[in-house]
Write a structure and sequence with these properties.
Layout lengths: L17 H10 L4 H13 L6 H14 L3 E5 L5 H9 L4 E6 L2 H14 L4 E5 L2 H10 L4 E6 L6 H11 E10 L14 H19 L4 E6 L5 E6 L6
Parallel strand pairs: 1-2, 1-4, 2-3, 4-5
Antiparallel strand pairs: 5-7, 6-7
The structure holds S-adenosylmethionine.
Enzyme class: transferase
Function: Catalyzes the methylation of 5-hydroxyuridine (ho5U) to form 5-methoxyuridine (mo5U) at position 34 in tRNAs.
Catalytic activity: 5-hydroxyuridine(34) in tRNA + S-adenosyl-L-methionine = 5-methoxyuridine(34) in tRNA + S-adenosyl-L-homocysteine + H(+)
């Protein structure tokens, strides 16, 4: 199947029926800048967080009210803007290795009038090592990078979470391929196997509660358990 044919290039999920997702997207409010990014993403075929998943991300940020947010995978800045607007008091550190996308993201941040975002052009693995060495902690970490990387920085992400920390990983169901939907094995089996490894790692975490939702491309929420209440 050609990549062009995927619903995701129309900002639609591969795992939620198209009519259902199109229906709910009408109700999930977003401002002009976010709509502009959605249009840009479709025109230029750039991946962004799907709007239905963005609606949940926004709600989580409003509930957690994180002082410090780390985002792995800025892309063109859609999810960054969602988080920055949901809680403008948060300090956001966002990283991407793709300079071309970061340039576009910075333009959108300007348009959105964001003041609380620091953009880092780097490989996420390097930044994570630096942050760990500096003893940095974050109340919220949003991971939206290359799916096959998830099992490799998973434990480090946990180490960066504060006591009340929450981490969200996007794309963990990868168009449903990790749950048995058929796929081009030659092309995708490495990613599918690494995502399965990641999901198995998650099952073994006694310190975190796990919520895995069939939303967007598969949305995983990890919440550090509180010592008293679980
Ligand atoms: C799906 S896009 C991010 C979309 C973005 N969160 C949004 O909603 O607009 C994934 C991004 O992760 C970046 N990325 C992937 N692996 C990375 C790594 N190891 N270090 C830094 N950036 C990485 C890619 O360059 C790409 O721009």
């Amino acid at each position: 199947m050609l990549q062009m044919e995927f619903n995701r290039w129309k900002n639609l999920s591969e795992i939620v029926p198209v009519d259902v997702e199109s229906f709910v997207n009408v109700y999930n409010s977003r401002d002009e800048v976010l709509e502009d990014i959605e249009k840009f993403a479709v025109e230029e075929k750039v991946p962004i967080l799907l709007p239905s998943a963005a609606a949940l991300l926004e709600l989580l940020i409003k509930l957690v009210k994180p002082e410090k947010i780390l985002e792995i995978g800025t892309g063109i800045g859609y999810s960054t803007i969602v988080m920055a607007k949901a809680f403008p008091d948060a300090e956001i550190l966002t990283v991407d290795s793709n300079l071309k996308r970061l340039k576009v993201a910075k333009e959108f941040f300007k348009k959105a009038g964001l003041k609380n975002v620091t953009v880092i052009h780097s490989d996420a693995f390097e930044l994570i090592e630096d942050l760990l060495a500096e003893g940095e902690k974050f109340d919220f970490i949003f991971v939206d990078s290359v799916k096959s990387e998830y099992p490799f920085f998973n434990f480090k992400i946990q180490a960066l979470l504060s006591e009340r920390g929450m981490a969200v990983f996007d794309n963990v169901l990868f168009r449903g391929y990790v749950c048995g939907k058929s796929y081009d094995e030659k092309r995708y089996s490495r990613t599918v196997n690494l995502l399965k490894l990641f999901l198995n790692q998650i099952k073994e975490y006694p310190d975190f509660s796990v919520t895995l939702l069939p939303l967007g491309d598969g949305f995983l929420i990890l919440k550090r358990k509180s010592p008293e209440r679980g």
